[in-house]
Amino acid sequence: MERHLAACRDCTGRAADLRAESGLLRVGLDMAVDDVDFKDFAQKVMARVTPEKPPLIERMRLALSEMFLYQRTAMISSLATAAVVLLVALPLVLRDNAPEGYAAERMTVKSIQSYQGARVAPVVMETEGGGSIIWMVDEQEQAPEPAKDAAGQKKPGVTNPDESSTEPQDEEGQPSPAPSVPPRPTGGAL
Amino acid sequence: MATDDLTLVKRVRSGDQRAFKLLVERYQRKVYAVALGMLKDKEEAMDVSQEAFVKVYKYLDHFKGDASFYTWLYRITSNICIDVLRKRRGGGEPVEFDETQDVDLSEARIGALGSRLGTNPQKSALRKELAEKIQEALATVPEKHRAILLLREIEGMSYEDLARTLDIPKGTVMSRLFHARAKVQKILGDYLELDEAKSGVGNE
């Protein structure tokens, strides 16, 4: 065919016409299409083909599967970044919750325990910031109080060896009731 | 690497809307170009292009996959365009082109278009007036011939693909394409001759 085209003036002319016309059509239509904005075209088509919304779970499932299908690299890198951030942030957050000592800016009471039979005296210290420090002080073991009847009178026969010398007496020789002074903390192991 | 059409079609069938959007984005310009070439009206061409994609989505289960997706898409597009043109004429029968009629391809005109446009049609087509003349020339070609010409030139379809797309014998494709080209060449040749006589523009 190439040999024929080289020799035949008619066919060479027709081939040139064909090429020119073909090029003109393509370029002419391309120019017309270039004037059009296709930004919303696909959106409009999609809106027409999906008039009703599928259920939420179905949409989420599709969105997730599409994300993994079309944006796999972005998804994987995002997940990796999130994992790294979590690994760095988690110890910081957890460390912040633990008390760092009495001088620390923030202290958190983790738990309060009471010991059966223990005699403790709380010492409450308020800080300038409004926080409180509760200090539990061990109380020294005290001698048991004498048994009293319902009216508060001592039962006869029940004596305390220290009573005679330590209990104050009033003018009439009757023993006065013990002053209700709270037991003084004497300290203990911190 | 871009996913091929058939894979996207399979994904659409399994409910993947995003795959259909990719198909739309892939063919929207070409479908619009075919519609514009057929209808000569930007608004109508846009509506028809959208309609073509909606129909494709709706009847996707009918697509067997034995031919390429785009031949099926263009068949739908050109059929919608032909329907629109029929409605425009008021439902009358289309004016069929007489393929037995001789086309004026006299010896004196052979190569005229090629020699006037030279080897760079893009440079010449940049002239808005010439682009309009191309549209005008296309409008004179009967719609079925126009569809073949557009699909051949825009999509570069083979005769076999054109025959499959339009569901006509390959011989008919060749015949219609020949007549369509002859008609367009004649109009463009006349225009360029007149243009040249007036101002001498058009030569390289």
Automatic annotation (TrEMBL), chain B:
<keyword id="KW-0731">Sigma factor</keyword>
<dbReference type="Pfam" id="PF04542">
    <property type="entry name" value="Sigma70_r2"/>
</dbReference>
<dbReference type="GO" id="GO:0003677">
    <property type="term" value="F:DNA binding"/>
</dbReference>
<feature type="domain" description="RNA polymerase sigma-70 region 2">
    <location>
        <begin position="23"/>
        <end position="89"/>
    </location>
</feature>
<dbReference type="Pfam" id="PF08281">
    <property type="entry name" value="Sigma70_r4_2"/>
</dbReference>
<dbReference type="InterPro" id="IPR013324">
    <property type="entry name" value="RNA_pol_sigma_r3/r4-like"/>
</dbReference>
<dbReference type="GO" id="GO:0016987">
    <property type="term" value="F:sigma factor activity"/>
</dbReference>
<dbReference type="InterPro" id="IPR036388">
    <property type="entry name" value="WH-like_DNA-bd_sf"/>
</dbReference>
<dbReference type="InterPro" id="IPR014284">
    <property type="entry name" value="RNA_pol_sigma-70_dom"/>
</dbReference>
<feature type="domain" description="RNA polymerase sigma factor 70 region 4 type 2">
    <location>
        <begin position="132"/>
        <end position="183"/>
    </location>
</feature>
<comment type="similarity">
    <text>Belongs to the sigma-70 factor family. ECF subfamily.</text>
</comment>
<keyword id="KW-0805">Transcription regulation</keyword>
<dbReference type="InterPro" id="IPR007627">
    <property type="entry name" value="RNA_pol_sigma70_r2"/>
</dbReference>
<dbReference type="InterPro" id="IPR039425">
    <property type="entry name" value="RNA_pol_sigma-70-like"/>
</dbReference>
<dbReference type="InterPro" id="IPR013249">
    <property type="entry name" value="RNA_pol_sigma70_r4_t2"/>
</dbReference>
<dbReference type="GO" id="GO:0006352">
    <property type="term" value="P:DNA-templated transcription initiation"/>
</dbReference>
<protein>
    <submittedName>
        <fullName>Sigma-70 family RNA polymerase sigma factor</fullName>
    </submittedName>
</protein>
<dbReference type="InterPro" id="IPR013325">
    <property type="entry name" value="RNA_pol_sigma_r2"/>
</dbReference>
<keyword id="KW-0804">Transcription</keyword>
